[in-house]
Design a protein that fits this description.
- It contains nine helices and seven strands, in the order E-H-E-E-H-E-H-E-H-E-H-H-H-E-H-H.
- The protein has 249 residues and is α/β, with parallel strands linked by helices.
- The protein has a seven-stranded mixed sheet with strand order 3-2-4-1-5-6-7, sandwiched between helices.
- Helix 4 (130-145) links the parallel strand 5 and strand 6 (152-155).
- It is globular, with a radius of gyration of 17 Å.
- It has a single domain (2-248), classed as Rossmann fold (3-Layer(aba) Sandwich).
- Helix 2 (56-68) crosses helix 8 (208-228) and helix 3 runs parallel beside helix 4 (130-145).
- Helices cover 39% and strands 16% of the residues.
Length: 249
């Protein structure tokens, strides 16, 4: 059975690391959901734009596969430049992610959710209400996909952001504080710090090396949460025919 992970948020979850700078990844046990089928991983994992690149999900999946000895599936649904308002419950991005995740559940067990978003909500006063606006979104993902017992990981914003736009991103620490508060408040929810990670020359997106390190930080937090959850059990695949097809890949 594939253990899969839903990738949601904006560009730094989709991945903008330069492929030429990417560290090697063992892709033997990493698959990506494309057109409803699990296919061997190739870059970009989350092709939301023509310039999509290396993703933090790559090193996360590699670490998970090595430790747990299973195939890891990535469900790419992140979309660059998107705000919380665009991820609202019932909106296009939310409904699309739910639909794709439900399709993935036919041939895998969703073992966690990786979220990175917040750059688009740093300005215009949005940073002050981030937590209260994101809480119902997170709750709805858990409810719609029955993911109450798996980790939901919230990645912090990079401390390089003010170099890109001092006025807009001076509030990024507030967004990070609210992400931390959400992790503290909600069970099976973890905050992944981005402190000290490097950026691309645009000072907006994490570099390939930083994304590799960030993915490993996500994995470390994931295991901490999973160890605390003694009731985690693999859910059965409901479609035996599709499971058989998957095992032939």
């Amino acid at each position: 059975m594939v253990h899969s992970f839903l990738l949601i948020g904006q560009s730094n979850m989709a991945g903008r690391g330069f492929p030429a700078e990417a560290l090697p990844i063992d892709t033997e046990h990493i698959k990506v959901l494309r057109n409803g089928r699990w296919q061997s991983m190739y870059r970009p994992v989350n092709g939301d734009r023509s310039f999509s690149g290396v993703s933090l999900a790559e090193s996360f999946a590699e670490a998970y596969a090595k430790v747990h000895g299973v195939d890891v599936g990535l469900i790419p649904c992140a979309d660059g430049g998107t705000s919380l308002a665009q991820w609202r419950v019932g909106g296009l991005l939310f409904d699309h992610a739910i639909a794709i995740a439900r399709l993935a559940q036919r041939t895998s067990t969703i073992a966690g959710v990786l979220w990175h978003q917040g750059e688009s909500d740093c300005g215009r006063g949005r940073h002050t209400t981030y937590a209260e606006r994101f809480q119902p979104i997170m709750d709805a993902f858990r409810r719609e996909l029955d993911l109450y017992d798996v980790p939901f990981l919230l990645g912090g914003l990079g401390d390089f952001l003010p170099l890109h736009d001092p006025d807009w991103y001076k509030t990024y620490p507030t967004v990070n504080e609210q992400l931390k508060a959400l992790a503290d408040k909600n069970p099976m929810t973890g905050y992944v710090p981005a402190d000290g990670l490097s950026a691309n020359p645009d000072n907006l997106h994490f570099s390939a090396a930083a994304l590799h390190a960030f993915g490993l930080r996500y994995y470390e937090v994931f295991e901490t949460l999973r160890d605390k959850n003694k009731v985690f059990e693999e859910k059965p695949c409901p479609d035996d025919a599709l499971r058989s097809e998957l095992e032939k890949l």
